[in-house]
Amino acid sequence: MASIDLAQVTKDVLGAMTTAIGSGSGQVHAFARAEAAKIAVSIAEIGQLRAAGVIDEEEMELHLDVQKNASRAVLMAVKGIGIVTAERAVNAAISVALAAVSTSLGVPFVRV
Prior knowledge:
With 112 residues, this protein is mainly α. The chain has a single domain (6-105), classed as Methane Monooxygenase Hydroxylase, Chain G, domain 1, CATH 1.20.58. The chain is 77% helix and 0% strand. The chain contains four helices and no strands. It has helices spanning 6-21, 26-51, 57-77, 83-105. The longest helix has 26 residues, at 26-51. The radius of gyration is 14 Å and the shape is globular.
């Protein structure tokens, strides 16, 4: 099983989130940095559990939904960011992380 470069995944996830958010206050981007790290680690862990057969595809999807909802809630709590922007940022971040983890581990995610 290949290893996952979490630093690079986090950087790529943050890039996707930053693009989706656009210009904004430093506070928005500070929260995005924190969420990027959480998303990268969470999806890497979910991928590893799936690759090891600890969880099945349905459980994998449920774990992904939990992470997506948590990240969306955090971003929506930041003053100046709307639901559409938060959704777009989280979706972009998760897509990047899923693609990286899927490639590294060879685990096909249903939602990429």
